């Protein structure tokens, strides 16, 4: 049965001229499974990092791996702010996160340290919750982003080969489905009901009566051309 992988151990450099504060910081970081190296001055911190206070060469390689530096602000000789500037001016040490701690809450002091590159500024006494906030900063130092590292010669030669293989691959044919667009059919027209047309035939009463008697209309009404004809008609009666 395999053992579970343990959390990575981080190396912390604690700098403080107070023995009590150094012991407190050392105990807090050891609770989070960190290795702690404690010194009492900024000059000893630079010496531990391989960078002396009066060195003109800032490109001194880092001999000991340190994942975080936490330092007091007020110290005799070199202050925590001076130590911060010295570390950020070194090309080999500038990527190490630096945290400043102080018993005095001075906004101008805090802003100056943050502008110089400090990751955090803690007020004393430092608590375990403050220490837990520093793990992401230590992780960033422990595991550098591989995308920012320069490519090796093997990686450089493999990239053109990969591009050539992609170029030699047969092109993929895209299937295009053509859809004939037709205008929508008009809706069916409703059949209109037939209109009944009533034809009314109006006939003259006289003509109607003549038809019923089988007489022509001219015979229905006798015409008298003159008075003689009228008299003759009377005599015949």
Automatic annotation (TrEMBL):
The modification 4-aspartylphosphate is found at residue 72. Keywords: Cytokinin signaling pathway, Phosphoprotein, Transcription, Transcription regulation, Two-component regulatory system. SUPFAM superfamilies: CheY-like (SSF52172). Signal peptide: none annotated. Gene3D superfamilies: 3.40.50.2300. InterPro entries: ARR-like, CheY-like_superfamily, Sig_transdc_resp-reg_receiver. GO terms for biological process: cytokinin-activated signaling pathway; phosphorelay signal transduction system. Pfam families: Response_reg. Residues 11-139 form the Response regulatory domain. Functions as a response regulator involved in His-to-Asp phosphorelay signal transduction system. Phosphorylation of the Asp residue in the receiver domain activates the ability of the protein to promote the transcription of target genes. Type-A response regulators seem to act as negative regulators of the cytokinin signaling. Belongs to the ARR family. Type-A subfamily. PANTHER family: TWO-COMPONENT RESPONSE REGULATOR, TWO-COMPONENT RESPONSE REGULATOR ARR9. This is Response regulatory domain-containing protein. It comes from Cuscuta campestris.
